[in-house]
Amino acid sequence: MAAKSVTRGTTGTVTAILACLGLLMAGCESGPPVPSPAETSPLIVPDISGASVHFTAQGDIGVRKDSRRVLDTIAKLRPQFNLALGDFTYRAGVEQQFCDMVKGKLGQDFPYEILAGNHDSDGKDGQLAKFVECLPNKLPGLKGEYGTQWYVDVPEKDPLVRFVMVSPGIDFQNEQHLDYSLQSERWDWTTQALDGAAAAKIPWTIVSMHAPCLSVGQYDCKVGKDFANMLLAKKVDLVLTGHDHVYQRTHQLGTGPACSELVPDAFSPDCITDPDTTMVKGAGTVFTTVGVGGESLYDVNNSDSEAGYFATWSGGNRDPAYGTLDVTLTVDQLTARFVSAKDYTFTDAFTIGR
Ligand SMILES: [Fe+2]
After folding, report:
1. Integer Cα distance of 174 and 28 in angstroms
2. CB-based contacts of 217: which residues, under 8 Å, 6+ apart?
3. For the chain, what is the radius of gyration of the CA atoms?
4. Are 152 and 166 contacting, i.e. CB atoms less than 8 angstroms apart?
5. Domain span holding position 206
6. Residue 175: is its pLDDT beyond 90?
């Protein structure tokens, strides 16, 4: 379903002209204020109900030219909401500037939903609390702690998808990791959120976390092997991450008789449940890193030990591209594509269907 959109400047100008024409009869003494160009920004008023859900997702954004280009790309796609997967400013003191940039491109009321990255959570490069304050949650029915560990069903009534947003593997204040180890409180919170979606027969589950497990970029499995395998065991449909400033998307992966567990830094072809771009729901999990929201790109390693799991990747040294993932869900199909920002050409597309 398309988001409703109104461009304030055009509407305001037309209203003013019509009002003035009416007032010409009376000498045109006054009229409603006409917004200056600086006050006109895209205003997306999303309608999040009905038979489809449309969202965008990306992380590692910054306050740069490419950050603004990616926001322009998002604005053109007209999603109902955006998931920002962490790392917003990379420096302290410009939190409000970041929020103003987002609102200037997407509108004051657009649901730009945030999850902490390591540059936001430890307080050194920006305060998470400030981002939470200036980009507050706008999705109804959200449970948990917005910005850090939360879930929400979309639409709220008769949901098509549960988004579970968690923060394993990154430092918070005082260099503390939040504990997502096996059967910790936060592990249990996550598994209960996923089990709850299954019990409620919500068709799709999507997990977001800043740091990935598998990567052909710079990082190893910061979220931990147990946590990654739990997501596979729960048959999460799609896992979204940032942290590595690359775009990379795995094949559909799953554990079972042929693959007892996913082992980081190695490759087992038996853990791939579907190697093409049209996948079947329930067969496994697709991991997608979208760390290309605007901050400078990292190189990818084409011969990484985990490369066999990946269907495609892009980085500073291979098909570089800033952009966003663009996802549409219906009860029967998840359709995803990578949409490059202006002047970049890399693309990706995949579906998961019944
Ligand atoms: Fe980052």
Report:
1. 63
2. 244, 245, 246, 248, 289, 291, 298, 299, 300, 301, 315
3. 21
4. no
5. 49-353
6. no
* Tokens read off for 260: 């007892």
Element (DSSP H or E) covering residue 13: helix 8-24
**Sign of the dihedral through C-alpha 84, 284, 311, 271:** positive
- Its pTM stands at 0.88
Residues 31 and 128 in one domain: no
Answer yes or no: do 189 and 287 share one domain: yes
4 C-alpha to ligand 1 centroid (Å): 32
Provide the pairing of β-strand 247-253 with 272-274: antiparallel
Q: How far is the CA of 293 from the centre of ligand 1 (A)?
A: 9
Residue 76, judged by CB atoms within 10 A of its CB (0-12, 13-18, 19+), counts as exposed
198 plus 156 within the same structural domain: yes
Decide if 143 contacts 166 (C-beta within 8 A). no
Strand partners, 152: 163
CA–centroid distance, residue 62 to ligand 1 (Å): 8
What tokens does 181 get? 């180890």
Peptide bond into 212 cis (omega under 30): no
23 and 75 assigned to the same domain? no
Q: Which of 34-38, 204-208, 270-274 has the lowest mean pLDDT?
A: 34-38
For 158-167, what is each residue's pLDDT tens digit? Answer: 999 999 999 9
Higher pLDDT, 20 or 68: 68
What is the predicted pLDDT for the residue at 44? 56
By three-state DSSP, how is residue 312 classified? strand
Using the mean position of ligand 1's atoms as its centre, give its distance from the Cα of residue 328 in Å: 25
Helices 225-233 and 185-199, packing angle to 10 deg: 10
User: Do residue 12 and residue 99 come from a single domain?
Assistant: no
176-210 confidence digits (pLDDT tens): 999 999 999 999 999 999 999 999 999 999 999 99
CA of 307 to the centre of ligand 1 (A): 21
Q: Is 182 helix (H, G, I), strand (E, B) or coil?
A: coil
Which residues sit opposite 58 in a β-bridge?
84
SS3 350: strand
